[in-house]
């Protein structure tokens, strides 16, 4: 979507038109675009501004305020480590540190191969099974530092199998 090709312009226009007559609910429009494309770069914000009359500054403010929205493409696997109180007291910061170390990225960043995005989350509503780690929205319970390497290698292995990587 980097150059906003005609198809993207058409689709975003359609999304905006879905909400015509509903007072152009910005959150709904941006949410649909995020779901469709996985991120909302500046040129898309400018197009939404043009179509809705909402200032770009306001749209940018919403996109950057809510962690659900992203300015850049996210990885195929979005790993969110909960740093809410219940998870934190059970060691989730150490779990996050381990993901950072093994993936070589900080929260908010994506690995160069586009496979992983790492996020630090607030409470994901799974305090009873803290520390919780969400992977593409699926919550994994009681994740310990010692589990992190296997979580990553399982995903990498799965991806290699899908791509046929490593086969003769
Ligand atoms: S604090 Fe982590 S799930 Fe509630």
Q: What are the salient characteristics of this protein?
A:
168 residues, alpha+beta, Glutaredoxin, 2 domains, 7 helices, 4 strands, binds FE2/S2 (inorganic) cluster
What does this structure look like?
The protein is an alpha+beta fold. The chain folds into two domains: 6-65; 77-163, Glutaredoxin. Helices cover 49% and strands 11% of the residues. The chain has seven helices and four strands. The chain has helices spanning 6-18, 26-37, 42-52, 56-65, 85-89, 92-103, 145-163, and strands at 77-82, 116-121, 133-135, 138-140. Strands 2-1-3-4 form a four-stranded mixed β-sheet, with helices on one face. It is globular and about 50 Å long. It binds FE2/S2 (inorganic) cluster (FES). Residues 82, 84-87, 123-127, 130, 132 line the site of FE2/S2 (inorganic) cluster.
Q: Reading side by side through the largest sheet, how are the strands ordered?
A: 2-1-3-4
Instruction: Using the coordinates above, name the CATH class of the largest domain.
Output: Alpha Beta
Question: Topology as H/E string?
Answer: HHHHEHHEEEH
Question: Rg from C-alpha positions?
Answer: 18 Å
Query: Tally of extended strands?
Result: 4
Q: In CATH, what is the homologous superfamily of the largest domain?
A: Glutaredoxin
Low-confidence stretches at least 5 residues in length (pLDDT < 50)?
Answer: none
For the largest beta-sheet, the strand count, sense and barrel status come to: 4 strands, mixed
User: Helix proportion of residues, in percent?
Assistant: 40-55%
Mean pLDDT: 91
- The CATH architecture of the largest domain: 3-Layer(aba) Sandwich
Bound molecules: FE2/S2 (inorganic) cluster
Distance between the termini: 35 Å
- Overall structural domain count: 2
């Amino acid at each position: 979507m980097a150059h906003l090709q005609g198809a993207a312009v058409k689709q975003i226009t359609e999304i905006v038109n879905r909400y015509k007559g509903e007072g152009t609910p910005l959150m709904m429009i941006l949410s649909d675009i995020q779901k469709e494309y996985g991120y909302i770069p500046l040129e898309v914000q400018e197009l939404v501004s043009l179509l809705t009359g909402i200032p770009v500054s306001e749209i940018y403010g919403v996109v950057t305020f809510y962690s659900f929205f992203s300015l850049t493409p996210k990885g195929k696997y979005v790993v969110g480590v909960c740093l809410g109180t219940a998870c934190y007291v059970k060691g989730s910061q150490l779990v996050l540190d381990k993901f950072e170390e093994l993936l070589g990225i900080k929260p908010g960043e994506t690995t160069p191969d586009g496979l992983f995005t790492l996020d630090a989350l607030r409470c994901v509503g799974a305090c009873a099974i803290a520390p919780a780690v969400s992977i593409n929205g699926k919550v994994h319970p009681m994740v310990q530092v010692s589990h992190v390497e296997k979580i990553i290698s399982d995903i990498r292995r799965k991806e290699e199998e899908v791509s046929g990587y490593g086969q003769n």
